[in-house]
Every structure is written in structure tokens, then in C-alpha cells.
Design brief:
The chain is of the alpha+beta class and 193 residues long. The chain contains six helices and eight strands, in the order ααββββββαββααα. The protein folds into two domains: 120 residues, Jelly Rolls, CATH 2.60.120; 36 residues.
């Protein structure tokens, strides 16, 4: 992480991001005092899967990638987020550990809000808190619709699904055989030396 830019840059991002449109000057000033601007270098981790969640982010500028951690130190890319995206907002609702790792692909400028500050804004009836909750509902609804669509595609065409699974199994078998054959060849080569 590079660190924190001056507060005037937080004000500048608040003025330009769509999520803050419609807020009064007073509300924007309050946000300037609450939100912290952080700059992450390419490759920096914003949050790691499994960590406790104390903050959420609004990506003001840059690109980040979202990964699911897999056994053996591997990871699967779930997606990519750009300007205006929220990161870690679900933890505001359930307080559970992070469900994915988020890593800066480019330099990323984020506005960060702690869960405690968000709860204070929500209790005070801040329009910003309600806008964030609205965005969370929209985000979760989209994910639910996408999951329903994927399940429909999976189960509505069982023959097609089975053929895809069969092809994937054959590819895995070929890869394993190729790996096994090349290691056998290496063993034969060493034996014949």
C-alpha cells in the first residue's frame, strides 16, 4: 500500500462517484471525515479470504481482481471490478469472514469505511448508509439471479451437461496421462544413461 492521500482527494472522489450523487454538501462533508482514501500498488492485497471483516471499500479508481483460494496454494479468479464498485460490503450485514481475496491489478484508489462508522451512520439515518444498503441488495439480487440462471442451464439440459462433464473428464485424463508419460520418459532416460 502506498498510503493515504490528502483529505481533499477524498472530497474529490466523493464528488465524482455516482454512489454519492444526491447527497447534500453537509452529508458529503461528513463522508469526507469518515472515509479514508487508500492507494494500493499493483499486486497489493486489499483483503484476504478468511480474514475478519472490519471495513468495506468503494473502488474510486483502478482495477482489482477477486479470487477464491484453493487447496495447495492455488486460486481461481472469480471476477474483476473497476471504478465505482463496492468491495466487502456483505460483511456489513453478516459480520462473517471475507469470502474471497481481492488483489489490485492496477494501482487502486479506494475509499474505506469501517463497520463501526457505517453502523453509526445507519443509526443516525444517513442517506449514504441507506444508499449502501440499497447497493448491497442490488448486488446480492444480481448474484442470486446469476446463480439461478446457471442452475437452470445445468439442470434443464441434462444430456448437454453430461456431455460437458464427460469432455472435462477426458481432458483431465489426457492431462494426467501426458504428465505420467513424460515422467516415465524422464525415468527411462535417466536409467539408460
Amino acid at each position: 500500500m502506498n498510503g493515504q492521500p490528502p483529505a481533499d482527494s477524498t472530497q474529490r472522489f466523493i464528488e465524482t462517484l455516482p454512489i454519492f450523487q444526491g447527497l447534500s454538501s453537509r452529508e458529503k462533508s461528513t463522508l469526507t471525515a469518515i472515509l479514508t482514501t487508500r492507494v494500493y500498488k499493483p499486486g497489493a492485497i486489499l483483503c484476504r479470504e478468511g480474514d475478519r471483516a472490519f471495513t468495506f471499500f468503494i473502488l474510486a479508481r483502478g482495477t482489482v481482481e477477486v479470487f477464491k483460494e484453493l487447496p495447495g496454494g492455488k486460486r481461481e479468479k472469480l471476477g474483476q471490478l473497476t471504478d465505482g464498485s463496492m468491495i466487502g460490503q456483505v460483511s456489513l450485514i453478516d459480520g462473517k469472514p471475507r469470502s474471497a481475496t481481492v488483489q489490485a491489478r492496477t494501482q487502486a484508489v479506494c475509499l474505506e469505511c469501517t463497520r463501526d462508522d457505517f453502523e453509526r451512520m445507519f443509526t443516525a439515518g444517513s442517506p449514504f448508509a441507506f444508499k449502501i444498503l440499497d447497493q448491497i441488495v442490488i448486488h446480492l439480487t444480481k448474484r442470486l439471479r446469476d446463480a439461478n440462471h446457471q442452475l437452470y442451464n445445468l439442470y434443464s439440459r441434462p444430456t448437454e451437461t453430461l456431455l460437458k462433464l464427460h469432455a472435462a473428464c477426458l481432458n483431465i485424463e489426457r492431462t494426467l496421462n501426458d504428465t505420467h508419460d513424460s515422467s516415465d520418459g524422464a525415468n527411462v532416460y535417466h536409467v539408460s544413461e
